[in-house]
Amino acid sequence: MLDTDKARDDLEKILKTKEYTVYNNSKGFIESWWDQAKEWVAALIEKLFPAIDSARGASGPILISIIAVVIILLALSAYFLIRNSKRNRLLHGQKPLKLRKDMNWTYLRHLEEAEKHEGDEEYTLSIRHLFLALLLNFHEKGLLEARIWKTNWDYYDELRKVNQQKAELFFKLARFFEEVTYGERNVQKDEYWQFHNEAISLLSDKEEGNRL
């Protein structure tokens, strides 16, 4: 009998300890949060799909799967939003076609001008005309619509809707173009030729119908 009383007293002491109380309260909070999350998901399903019978009686694993899918979709949305925002900042909002004559010249005229500056080793000016030639070439192919008020981000956004591969290459060239033209970057000869070769490769691409 004494052992029984002692055991009861010991149990009461354990139940009153701070550690047990904290654990018990934490467990209650987690369970409460989980019940609220399940209720929210069930209500959302019923709202989105009225024809489906009440989702509140769905089993735990099903609700866990649904919550996991929602979290993944939200994470993906956040990722693409952050990526596009970052890219938008990288293209500084400058308008490459600043002058009316830039639009009036054909892309072949810009190529000739680029070649002339290249011969004089004026790589900054050559890069500018190479980029404008590429822009107007894409305009002629119908991949984008060149306008004086548009920025390189506008062109990239238009281009990726019809050809993702060209859009990524254009983005790379546009960044370098802006660094050279507006950031006063000193262009090295090897950098110029890399830009030159990539721009010419895009200009000579005959797969105009390969739209993604």
The major pleated sheet works out as: none
Q: How would you state the average pLDDT, rounded?
A: 74
Give the strand tally: 0
What is the multimeric organization of the chains shown? single chain
Secondary-structure-based class equals mainly alpha
Low-confidence stretches: 207-212
Instruction: State the shape.
Output: elongated
Helix content: over 70%
Radius of gyration (CA) equals 31 Å
What fraction of the residues are assigned to beta strands by DSSP?
under 5%
SSE order in H/E notation?
Answer: HHHHHHHHH
The first-to-last residue Cα distance is: 83 Å
Count, helices: 9
What would your notes on this structure say?
This protein has helices spanning 2-16, 18-48, 60-90, 100-104, 107-119, 123-141, 152-160, 164-181, 189-203. By secondary structure, it is mostly helical.
Topology:
Blueprint lengths: L1 H15 L1 H31 L11 H31 L9 H5 L2 H13 L3 H19 L10 H9 L3 H18 L7 H15 L9
Helix pairs in contact: 2-3, 5-6, 6-8, 6-9, 7-8, 8-9
Which descriptors apply to this entry?
212 residues; mainly alpha; 9 helices
Quick recap of the structure?
The protein is mainly alpha-helical and 212 residues long. It is 74% helix and 0% strand.
